[in-house]
Design brief:
The protein has 124 residues and is of the alpha+beta class. It has two helices and six strands. The structure holds coenzyme A.
Length: 124
């Protein structure tokens, strides 16, 4: 549907995931190669468009989506880092999944305060 299209949808290597519960789409998330400024790993993947339906939040859907995105990155080759500009009020979500905050809170006009969250993935 064109109303939902985003500029990064068709970036080579991008993966878009939906989480379903009883055939209902309750969450989405995407990941794509997008080097973070100052990235320390040879591969740098950016999470975008993370969202879970309000009535399904807190039930593990967001975790499942991020874990699936990370699993995809692991299949593409490590070491790598996964990062995002996360909304400041969900910093704790990313921290629970092993991400660390980098730098201070900054404002994205129109969408509010954000923080860069980063997770380094090392080969086992
Ligand atoms: C952020 C969001 C994607 C999280 O999805 P979710 O399905 O509610 O998260 P989960 O239930 O999988 O939670 C995973 C863990 O993070 C924790 N967590 C979730 N949201 C949190 C928050 N806002 N602050 C702190 N911790 C949080 C949970 O307690 C859980 O911890 P546990 O595994 O130790 O029990 C969801 O709340 C959302 O869509 N929010 C609105 C849109 C938004 O802000 N998107 C983020 C853009 S960066």
């Amino acid at each position: 549907m064109s109303a939902c299209a985003l500029p990064y949808d068709t970036v080579p290597g991008a993966l878009h995931i939906g989480c379903f519960q009883h055939n209902r789409l309750i969450g989405v998330g995407s990941i794509l190669p997008d080097p973070r400024k100052g990235a320390t790993q040879p591969a740098s993947w950016r999470i975008r468009g993370m969202a879970v339906e309000e009535d399904a939040r807190g039930t593990g859907a967001g975790r499942k989506i991020v874990e699936a995105l990370i699993s995809y990155v692991e299949q593409q080759g490590l070491p790598a880092e996964v990062w995002c500009n996360g909304r400041a009020h969900v910093t704790g979500f990313y921290q629970r999944l092993g991400f660390q905050q980098l730098g201070d809170v900054f404002e994205i006009p129109g969408t509010g305060p954000h923080v860069v969250m980063v997770k380094t993935l090392a080969p086992q």
